[in-house]
Structure formats: C-alpha cells, structure tokens
TrEMBL record:
Membrane-spanning intervals of the chain: none
Pfam families: UQCC2_CBP6 (PF20180)
GO BP, sorted A to Z: mitochondrial respiratory chain complex III assembly
Gene Ontology cellular component list: mitochondrial nucleoid
Main localization, broad class: mitochondrion
Alphabetically ordered keywords of this record: Mitochondrion, Mitochondrion nucleoid, Transit peptide
Protein name: Mitochondrial nucleoid factor 1
Source organism (scientific name): Salarias fasciatus
Record localization: Mitochondrion matrix, Mitochondrion nucleoid
Amino acid sequence: MSATRYRRFLKLCEEWPRDEMKKGRDLGTFLRQRVASAFREGENTQIADPEKCDQMYESLARINGNIYRQRFPRVRDTSFTGVTVEECKLLLSGSMQTMDDDKKSLWKTIMERFSSKSPEDAPEKPSEK
C-alpha cells in the first residue's frame, strides 16, 4: 500500500507548478522536498499513520485541482487595496528581495524622517570620563 501512496505523491509533485520567480520560497519546491524526506526509502517506506497520509494527499490534490477556487469564485481579481493579480505576483516575486537588501533599519528611517539631518551627519557626543 505504501507503493501506491508514494506513486500518488510523485504524480502530484509532477503536476504541481513551480514558480521560478520565487526561488527558495516556492510551494512546489517545498512540497517536493517534503515528499522526498517523508518517503526516504521510496516505495518501501513504512507509513506510521496511513489515514493522516491519505488526508494530506487529498488536501493537496484539492488545492492543486483548484477545487476551492471553482467552489468559491471571486467577484473581482483584485484585493481591497485595488492591487491586481499581476502586481501581487510582482510584489511577491524575488525581484523585491533586492529592495529588502538595500532597506535601511527602522531606526535610521525614523531618524531621517524626524530630524533635519540624517543620523550619519550628526556629530557624535563626546564620551564622559
């Protein structure tokens, strides 16, 4: 029976789409890694809780098959902010990660916003002896 479960999970992994824009954060890649670690011995892996394994597979298969999207269709393809699907994909993609690397600390941002000089330009206080 483990062989059947293993093959079903492999088929699901093949069908699950990968998003190349989200390297390191892609759900499809994460799913493949989890299946590989859960079925280390391939078809010979012994499943401790077969019911839980089957439930997990059925849940993932429903998500992959867009069952909930068909059951609960959206009226519009935007959020309450008015951001479109394409804009959301751009924001969640890895291209925004480069902006995070350049982001200043919260303290520096607050200091720049509320002072006339930036914190780097402010003279240092003499140390007390």
